[in-house]
Design brief:
The protein has 189 residues and is mostly helical. Helix content is 67%, strand content 0%. InterPro entries: RNA_pol_sigma-70-like (IPR039425), RNA_pol_sigma-70_dom (IPR014284), RNA_pol_sigma70_r2 (IPR007627), RNA_pol_sigma70_r4_t2 (IPR013249), RNA_pol_sigma_r2 (IPR013325), RNA_pol_sigma_r3/r4-like (IPR013324), WH-like_DNA-bd_sf (IPR036388).
Length: 189
């Protein structure tokens, strides 16, 4: 097998290329995209659901959505993996809202969970982006940074945020919307 096709060798550019090909219904590209990203996306889903079989089902739905929405990917707005993680996170939160999860399983196939190791240049780019994101989060009014982290990293629903921050649901939605717009503006500087 060509070394450049191994999952750990994919860069943002190669993943964007695969997504572009997937948007043209290229099944081989979709297979390669899945092979390159399924462990990471499973890790995102599993960290929230903590149930292997439900996580696997949700992951299938995530890839169906990626197949359907590949043409809407815009590399100027997000990296390919960020775009796919957002789809996975949103679908997982929808599953949590259904409130139909069986108890967490003890027996987990940890080979499916993402290996967070990355190439040195990817690590440098990611660390620079994280530093910038942290600086942008620091620029948000209190307690909005904490709210954004709770929503987008911990999977809190809008209702849970309203209860946690003792604010009306409409206020939470407005704060999140404005905070995300502010973060996008900050990150694009």
């Amino acid at each position: 097998m060509n070394q450049s096709l191994l999952p750990e060798q994919h860069t943002a550019k190669s993943l964007a290329n695969l997504l572009q090909r997937v948007s043209q219904e290229d099944r081989l590209a979709f297979s390669e995209l899945y092979e390159a990203t399924h462990r990471k996306l499973f890790g995102v889903v599993y960290r929230i659901l903590k149930n292997q079989s439900v996580s696997e089902d949700v992951l299938q739905e995530v890839y169906l959505k990626i197949w359907d929405k590949a043409s809407s990917f815009d590399a100027s707005l997000a990296s390919p993996i960020t775009w796919m993680v957002t789809i996975a996170r949103n679908r997982t939160i929808d599953e949590v809202r259904k409130n139909t999860l069986p108890d967490s399983e003890i027996d987990v196939d940890f080979d499916l969970i993402a290996d967070d190791s990355m190439a040195p240049d990817d690590f440098f780019i990611k660390s620079q982006d994280l530093l910038k994101l942290e600086a942008c989060l620091d620029g948000l009014e209190s307690p909005r940074a904490e709210m954004v982290k709770a929503a987008y990293l911990d999977g809190f629903s809008r209702q849970e945020l309203a209860e946690r921050f003792e604010q009306p649901l409409g206020t939470i939605k407005t704060w999140l919307h404005r905070s995300i717009k502010q973060l996008q503006g900050c990150m694009n500087l």
